[in-house]
Amino acid sequence: MMQKKIFFQLLFLFLFSVSEAKEMYLYEGAAMGTYFTVKIYSNKKVEFEPLIKELKNLEEKFSDYIPNSEIARINKMAGEDYIKVSEETILILEKSIQLSELSNSAFDPTVGPLIKLWGFKNDKFNYPSVREISLKLNLIGFQNILIDKDRVFLKNKGMSLDLGAIAKGYTADKIVSVLRKSGLDNAIVEIGGDMFCLGSGKELKGWLIGIRHPQKAGEIIAAINVSDKAVATSGDYENYFFYNGIKYPHIIDPRTGYPVKNGVVSVTVVSDEGLKSDGWATALFVLGWEDAKRIVESKKDLEAVIIREIDNKFQCWASSGIREKIEFYEN
Ligand code: AMP
Ligand code: MG
Hints:
By secondary structure, this protein is of the alpha+beta class. The chain contains nine helices and 16 strands. The strands form four sheets. Strands 1-2-6-7-10-13-14-15 form an eight-stranded antiparallel sheet. It has a three-stranded antiparallel sheet with strand order 3-5-4, covered by helices on one side. It has a three-stranded antiparallel sheet with strand order 8-9-16, with no helix packed on it. α2 (49-62) packs antiparallel against α7, α7 (167-181) packs antiparallel against α8 (274-287) and α8 runs antiparallel to α9. Bound molecules: adenosine monophosphate (AMP) and magnesium ion (MG). Magnesium ion is lined by residues 165, 232, 234, 278-279, 281-282. Magnesium ion (MG) binds next to β10 and α8.
């Protein structure tokens, strides 16, 4: 009798552990002009169809690389007419405008003409003249994005929207919401280096996310433990060019027209939303060491790790809300 009981107990334990055993499902590809990876831990079979559909939907709206995307159509009609767009495009533009206001124009989605002028879009780097920059500066200004219910108009001819600093994070949010709707709650969604860490990882101890070393490719300078958080990094090592021995990164200060050179080399933002982490990482990079630290500490919904280069060394700072969850390595 006793043996039978033990047998059933063991059988139960075995069945329980099999049903709990989570398999890893991987889906990788290219979207929004970059690469993405979705890694899901689940004990039921994962269907990727809804993800594929969502990515296609977002590309058709926001991609720079699709000539007829909603953003491309708004750009084409700049200075001419309003364009009717989806609710989702209105939403991302409203959020972008809000971030521009909050960051005192350090973030500005109308930075497109400057990004093109410096050649960051097509990898044809070019050091422009002061005159060229000042002409393009006339076209920059989120205040000139006019939204009328479901229609958008860029006030001046030559203006162009560039959602490159926010779209990866927003895409991660949308993928996470598709996963959640399918009952999946343990996954890493990574798009061009920006991540959403859904759930608490395979061992349920949180996801351990490395922050890239700003200079040593393939090495990490710190690691943070997060659960249910979006982690986005803006770094001067992502896309840059050298001119007269000086490095110019693809993040531009929309107020001066020049690539940012303020000593900050990397900003990682941790928040509940991909759009927020992605957008603020870019904005804080522009704002620089002191202002960025002050803003992060004043906002309950943002945590950040900021790295600057000073006297040929890297100095790292983590906001008070994540200090205990981060480990720094020798640099
Ligand atoms: P991220 O890697 O998220 O920092 O985004 C960088 C991309 O955002 C660049 O390649 C540009 O397309 C765009 N961008 C650069 N500077 C700004 C800025 N100050 N505000 C908004 N978007 C920007
Ligand atoms: Mg960004």
